């Protein structure tokens, strides 16, 4: 996700210093005019606003607070925008740590996937101080279509977790409904056409069902990353004394699917869980006819 | 639902004979030009196409196969369109019974609620023979916007159950996600604005969240009827050896909510289950500010 987002910043004429552990991943950015740094600390020394986009809480901790990390190089008055999807608790803790050295932080996780990153149509959910948010808005707008300040530090991460809970449960809902119908002998393509315009219709249904019917589980958004998001949601919910019965059950399904070697497939592969239990596949039938 | 649907048939100039156990409920139809019958059998004697719209499987069995029911009056060559949402198994059995006396049947349950019935924008999912479907299409089009033949007898009911499984699970997904965010101190209105345009967005979210934020649980579509639909879905799934873990869990929640006297409220009250466990309400905060 980081590369297409960085390319959009360059397109909007923001001067850029970039770093990645794997240098080959930023070659395209160097060619497009970005300066290449040797460490997160060097990026931070050279920039007013530092953006991080990595996998999980521990990665952000390392790249920000670790050796040669952002905190080592960041000047007083600079801002860190962490656009990774991580634990709100960890995000808040890092923000507090940075504040001690005069560095402000926004958490700004995104939704919209690889395609949204390329098209600069990401939904960006922001946590942090209003004044910092306003300062950074032009930068965020260069990468996303919808940018919303949700609340103070960590609030962007909370919103992202809520988003991921809904997405996972909506996919599993499709799995149960379409598996039932397919096992009953219904053409799932006809079911899709019959219900997509009604109350059951959703962005998940419109984007995932055509791929599921083609048995195309190329990511997209990897199941393993969605599993990580639900883990963070359940940990956050536990600390808040909020029981999440369905999220907890779907998390178990994701653990099973990841264990079965499907972690690198698209998260729509969640439907496999019930498909396998019912011994049926939701797929196009050769006789499918489209109807108005 | 029956009354507004019948009014739309009259508007499209279909001559109508109507029956209801409670006569006051069809006064408006009589005034609009419908002939009032004294029994389902009398309706059947006078009509080429008979439409039933009642609550559950046992009601359809009674009105069709019971004393002075449709089967007693129906002429050979006539068609019964059952638009109730009932068990696919029962629907198929009634179709077989009627076929013996030369009466054809379509199951044609609808989605779209009271408002869709009034506006003639219902989604109608049809099961039955292609030729009968084509004969009845003008009648169905007078009541709905999307009419799709899904398969043979019972297939319309299966599609409706799939629709209801997705709807129920999507509402509970909102319940878990918005309860978590609200308990974390997030304004749920801002969360809604931040995520509705992304992958988590859905027709359920757009139609239910504004009402939930206003704590308005007036139906709409009653929780008790949704509970009945999930019961039918789980029974059908059991006969097909399809386990539905989330549907089963949500059904338990609906049983609890119905037991707590909420059966006549809108099905969006499903969010109450997790709200109560977490001791928080998803509602507008006085300080809510809308953002772009």
Key terms:
3-stranded mixed β-sheet, N-(1-d-carboxylethyl)-l-norvaline Dehydrogenase, domain 2, homodimer, 8 strands, elongated, Rossmann fold, 3-stranded parallel β-sheet, 292 residues, mainly alpha, 11% strand, 2 domains, 14 helices
Describe the structure.
The structure is a homodimer of 292-residue chains. With 292 residues, chain A is mostly helical. Chain A folds into 2 domains: 2-152, NAD(P)-binding Rossmann-like Domain (Rossmann fold), CATH 3.40.50; 159-278, N-(1-d-carboxylethyl)-l-norvaline Dehydrogenase, domain 2 (Orthogonal Bundle), CATH 1.10.1040.10. Chain A has 14 helices and 8 strands. The first copy, chain A, has helices spanning 2-11, 27-31, 40-46, 57-65, 70-73, 88-99, 113-119, 130-141, 155-183, 188-195, 203-213, 223-239, 245-262, 272-278; strands spanning 17-18, 35-36, 49-52, 79-82, 104-107, 110-111, 122-127, 144-151. A 3-stranded parallel sheet of chain A has the order 3-4-5, with helices on both faces. In chain A, α8 links the parallel β7 and β8 (144-151). In chain A, α1 (2-11) packs parallel to α7 (113-119), α9 (155-183) packs across α12 (223-239) and α9 packs parallel to α14. Chains A and B meet through β8, α9, α10, α11 and α12 of A and β8, α9, α10, α11 and α12 of B.
């Amino acid at each position: 996700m980081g590369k297409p987002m960085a390319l959009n910043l360059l397109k909007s004429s923001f001067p850029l210093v970039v770093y990645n552990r794997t240098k080959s991943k930023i070659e395209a950015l160097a060619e497009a005019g970005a300066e290449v740094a040797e460490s997160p600390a060097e990026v931070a020394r050279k920039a007013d606003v530092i953006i991080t986009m990595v996998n999980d809480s521990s990665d952000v901790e390392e790249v920000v607070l670790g050796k040669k990390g952002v905190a080592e190089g960041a000047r007083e008055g600079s801002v860190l925008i962490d656009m990774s999807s991580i634990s709100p608790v960890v995000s808040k803790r890092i923000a507090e740590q940075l504040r001690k050295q005069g560095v402000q932080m926004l958490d700004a996780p995104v939704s919209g996937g690889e395609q949204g990153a390329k098209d600069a149509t990401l939904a960006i959910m922001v946590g942090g101080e209003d004044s910092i948010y306003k300062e950074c808005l032009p930068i965020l707008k260069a990468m996303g279509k919808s940018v919303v300040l949700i609340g103070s530090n960590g609030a962007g991460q909370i919103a992202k977790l809520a988003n991921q809970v809904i997405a996972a449960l909506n996919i599993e809902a499709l799995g149960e409904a379409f598996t039932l119908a397919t096992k009953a002998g219904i053409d799932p393509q006809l079911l899709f056409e019959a219900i997509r315009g009604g109350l059951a219709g959703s962005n998940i249904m419109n984007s995932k069902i055509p791929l599921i019917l083609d048995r195309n589980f190329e990511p997209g958004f990897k199941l393993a990353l969605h599993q990580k998001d639900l883990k963070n949601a359940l940990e956050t919910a536990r600390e808040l004394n909020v029981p999440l019965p369905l999220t907890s059950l779907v998390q178990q399904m994701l653990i099973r699917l990841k264990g079965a070697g499907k972690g690198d497939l698209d998260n729509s592969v969640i439907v496999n869980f019930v498909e396998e239990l019912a011994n049926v596949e939701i797929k196009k039938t050769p006789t499918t006819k489209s109807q108005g």
